[in-house]
Amino acid sequence: KARKLALESSAPVMIEAMTYRQGHHSTSDDSSRYRDTDEVQTATDVSDPLVRLSRFLKHFGWIDDNAAASIEDEERIDVLRAMEAAETRPDPKLDTMFQDVYHEKPPHLIRQEEELNRHMKKYNLPHQ
Predict the structure, then answer these.
(1) This model's pTM is above 0.70
(2) Using CA atoms, how far apart are residues 93 and 60, in angstroms rounded to an integer?
C-alpha cells in the first residue's frame, strides 16, 4: 500500500517499523538484569529486521548471497572510513554534552553540569 502510494504520488511515505531492541540501551546498561537472554535470542532469530529484509529480497530474487556480501563489504569499509575521519576531529567541548537534549535545560541537568564542573576544577582536569 505504501509503495503504491509513493509511486503514484511521487511523495515520501512514512512507514512505522516495530522492532525489538536486541542490545543494551548503552554501555552502562545490562539488559540481562531485566529480561531473559532467551527472549532476546528468540526475538533476534524471529524478527531481526536485517535478516527479514535479506530473506525478503532473496525470496523475490532481487539480491543473492554474493550481492549481499558485496554490499556488506562496501558498507563496512565506508563505516571504517567514517570512524577514522571522526577520530581525527578535535574532541568536543565538555559543555556540549548538556546541550541539545531539552529545549530548556531542566534542573537535574543543570545540577549534573555544575557537579561536573566542580569535579573538573577540584581535580585540575582539563576542561575545554
Answers:
(1) no
(2) 49
